[in-house]
Amino acid sequence: MHKLRPYQRRAVKYLLAHKRGALFMEMRLGKTLCVLRALKACAPARARVLVVAPNAALGSWEQEAVSESLRFCYLTGTAQIRRRELEQEWTGGGLFLINKEGWRALPEIAGKAWDAVVLDESTFIKNPKAKVTRFFLQHFSAIPRKWILTGTPCPESEADYWCQLAFLHGHAFGFRSFWDFRARSMRPSYSGYGWVLKAGEADRMRRQVGRTCFVLRRKDVHLEKVRVKEQRVIEMPRKIRKAYAQMEEEFECKIDDVEASTMWSGAKFAHLRQLCGGVLNKQWVWDGKLDELLHLLQGELSGEKVVVWCCFNLEVHHLCEAIQKKGIRVAALTGADKPDARRAVFGAFQKSTGPRVLVLQQAIAQMGVDLSASDTAIYYSSPVGQMARRQTEDRIVSVAKDSPLLYIDLVVDDSVDEDVLELLEKKVKRGDLSLTRALQRAMKERKLWTK
Fold first, then answer.
1. Which of 120, 210, 306, 363 is most exposed by smallest CB count within 10 Å?
2. 45 with 127, same domain?
């Protein structure tokens, strides 16, 4: 049984005092263990606890449950299998682990008398229009204990808090409806696209978050790692640059016998991003980034374990094949791989005898996966969202190691690669500011769980 760190004991104390609580703790601070210890302290014998989490995070819940000698079962597979597992295991109690999409196959979870419901990486319910958000906000109101967990509660703006806190209390920031909240606290943006918070509303929301939620970052407990960020800039050959410029201006381009066209701005953006990586219309057309990646793996990073992040499956497969041809032990995963296969690969990578390089499609492993055997992450193509980027970065963080962490972005000069990184930097600063002010408010009011 793991010994709790002092800040974890404060988190457990907070959960025991709040039947409807939020742990906004950064990754690698042990949120899962805090929840399990709180459940052991307050839940009745054979308590039935529903844990809803991204697929990638379910393995962490299993590992912690085993270490805490807690009973658990997976509600995964077909609808029939999920339903059978739920009914067979119900009388024995324990943790019922289900992925965040699982409610579609098993809506029966809404009618069960759970002792507690835990939403891990709770930002999956931040969008009020999403069906998954409506499902969890409309049900589970009578559950004795409801807790939400995430280290990045407001990746886009403070408005992201509303649905997450409304799941806990049935209301948030004085409003029982998100649309009432939007009508009173937000206004249309000057660009005409979307809504933004009115002056003063962000501060008001941060104050409430600081008063009612447990907010903790690694640097607050002196566990922040030194992060070294580098960019390797790649120049496009003349032929590729000409095609890139044509796609930007005319929404179509051609390279040798490969051509692509679209009438949509979103599709054009995707074409430009893939072209930076070497792909046009599912065909590999140049090796600029790939050559730099291989140069790093065989040179400066020779012998080191490295995680390589990609946004597109074709990149993952092509990179894996190219790395393998260089005699480097490599493994790759995309969304097509089953959860069991993913867990096996993640486990193998953590071992010294496992693959040296792990190439991943970013969406499958940005939450709940420990890849801390590596101190280096290379972004062949970066996620656009701030939350996805931050969570992929945190995969290689370990509070047990003191070594600095290295992040390398492969960036094509004068391209959308640069635009993506510039946008991410702005969003990171905004999200950090929100949590910092919320934490300052909590410390100022000297809540018991911050002492």
1. 363
2. yes
